């Protein structure tokens, strides 16, 4: 997307910033949060060594935990004190009698279905952005972060980011300003030179704007229906920022 700046020169919107902070899921990692009935949770449970539950039982537990975490993440009082999936699994009514080893397997299944893939096209986009900007990640994830770091490493993008902040590491989720403050500690730059890029109006755009940094919304055919939240730029895909 090309804009006209105050000096009547043409350039990319992102070139007014030194730092670009990115959401991860649905921004450059896709096929995340696969917790529907057809997503094979039971098969993953068996493959990872689960024996005490049927496939349907494993599905019911994991999908219920995911839905509960999603619902709880919308409650303002939880923004700065949010448990990881292991905490939710321990408290689920159908897991109270399960041994610790079985809970660990369920957590691994959850993680495998939460993590997505980074298509080669987006690896190339990140590489180009890395050539012109300092990059960081601020992302809400429910599982422990190790598996996500492995995926970033596997795709060769981990070292492109100066700072990576995952919510499950600090117990704070967007739109809390604390998670943005955590990321900003890694950059010696004024907030006016930082933009945040994400697909959620409530978490990403509102969180960034409330913290005082510019927000780029990846719309992906969503409706602009969050009252009072106004992105500084709307694009349909991360790739559009290169234009």
What can you see in these coordinates?
There is one protein chain. The protein is of the alpha/beta class and 243 residues long. It folds into 2 domains: 2-32 and 117-242, Rossmann fold, CATH 3.40.50.1000; 37-114. 38% of the residues lie in helices and 14% in strands. The chain has 9 helices and 8 strands. The chain has helices at residues 41-47, 55-72, 85-91, 100-114, 120-132, 146-154, 167-170, 177-184, 201-211, and strands spanning 2-4, 10-12, 19-22, 134-139, 161-166, 194-198, 214-218, 233-235. A 6-stranded parallel β-sheet has the order 5-4-3-6-7-8, sandwiched between helices. The chain has a two-stranded antiparallel ribbon with strand order 1-2. Helix 1 (41-47) crosses helix 2 (55-72) and helix 3 (85-91) packs across helix 4 (100-114). The radius of gyration is 19 Å and the shape is globular. The protein starts with a strand and ends in an 8-residue tail after the last strand.
Give the full name of the CATH homologous superfamily of the largest domain. HAD superfamily/HAD-like
- CATH secondary-structure class of the largest domain: Alpha Beta
Large-scale geometry? globular
Strand content: 5-15%
């Amino acid at each position: 997307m090309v804009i006209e700046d105050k000096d009547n020169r043409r350039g990319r919107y992102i070139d007014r910033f030194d730092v670009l902070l990115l959401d991860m899921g649905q921004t450059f990692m896709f096929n995340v949060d696969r917790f529907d009935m057809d997503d094979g949770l039971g098969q993953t449970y068996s493959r990872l060594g689960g024996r005490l539950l049927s496939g349907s039982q494993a599905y019911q537990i994991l999908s219920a935990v995911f839905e509960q975490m999603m619902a709880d993440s919308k409650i303002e009082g939880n923004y700065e004190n949010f448990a990881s999936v292991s905490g939710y699994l321990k408290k689920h009514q159908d897991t109270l009698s399960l041994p610790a080893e079985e809970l660990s397997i369920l957590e691994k299944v959850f993680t495998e279905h939460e993590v997505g893939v980074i298509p080669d096209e987006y690896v190339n986009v990140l590489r180009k952005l890395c050539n012109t900007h300092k990059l960081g990640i601020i992302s809400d994830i429910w599982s422990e972060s190790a598996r996500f770091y492995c995926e970033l490493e596997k795709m060769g993008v981990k070292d492109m980011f100066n700072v990576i902040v995952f919510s499950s590491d600090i117990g704070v989720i967007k739109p809390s300003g604390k998670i943005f403050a955590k990321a900003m500690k890694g950059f010696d730059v004024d907030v006016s030179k930082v933009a945040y890029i994400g697909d959620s109006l409530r978490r990403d755009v509102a969180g960034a704007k409330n913290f005082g940094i510019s927000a780029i919304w990846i719309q992906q055919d969503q409706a602009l229906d969050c009252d009072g939240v106004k992105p500084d730029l709307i694009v349909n895909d991360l790739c559009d920022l290169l234009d």
